[in-house]
Design brief:
Blueprint lengths: L4 H21 L1 H13 L1 H12 L17 E4 L13 H6 L5 E4 L16 H19 L4 E6 L1 H12 L6 E7 L21 H8 L1 H4 L6 H7 L9 E6 L19 E5 H4 L9 H4 L2 H11 L11 H4 L1
Parallel strand pairs: 1-2, 1-3, 3-4, 4-5, 5-6
Amino acid sequence: MKLPWRRRSLRALLPALALATAIAAAPAAAAATTTASASSAPASAVASSAVSSGWNNYSCKPSAAHPRPVVLVHGTLGNSVDNWLGLAPYLVARGYCVFSLDYGQLPGVPLFHGLGPVAKSAEQLSAFVDKVLGTTGAAKVDLVGHSQGGLMPRQYLKFLGGAAKVNSLTAFAPTNHGTTLSGLTKLLDVVPGARDAIQGTAPGLTDQAAGSDFLRRLNAGGDTVPGVRYTVIATKYDEVATPYTTGFLSGPNVRNVLLQDLCPLDLSEHVAIATLDRLVFHETANVLDPAHATPTTCATAVLG
């Protein structure tokens, strides 16, 4: 029997409400979680490997071949390590100085970041870029972001002076014009108090919902700023940044790429596009070094 519309709407909204409730309750268990995370051997090994390999190694100096550091910007509920366990070593092995930051942290919520107001997160990115430029001596950086990490830098570029410090922004499955989360965000105004509940605990979520005040301000007057090259890589199998076409940008110096146009067999969805996909890694290397770019095809997954 088909459920009445309102009952189906409530059922669909439950995951978002559960997330907001979990975030609100997290401080009670935060101390134990943080202690366990800090003392775990795997986490320590990852952090040590990241530094020794040149990832987040502030002694790294850009080469003549790759004169700009790469700053990786994680997505919602991600962090500076987990989001980049695939791409960061890939770029380091190719001679880049690679750095990643944590942003949008909520008090008492370890590991799962990108939940604070997007505009405040952009301020954190601004400070981090300044730190990277100061320690490496470079004039500009290249930004690479996933999901919210592809959207949030545009706030930095447009309103915080970032355009003078950034050569390019490459975004994987970004939420540039808002997501419907496969229809879920449309229910925020159907269930009384739902939007306020989530906004109050995790504004980084509602800022990315289609039609949000943040997105209206960000996109007013155009998607891009002069002097920065923009690349968006989207997948038609995205189940989070939906519809996937809303991630594409309009304006000068923009290249929008559908992953399945590069390889129709590629099945990557929202998470895999940034964490596992070798075609995306190769295409990112092309953006960072266009003078030595090579075609990205299905064979790249094996040979690239």
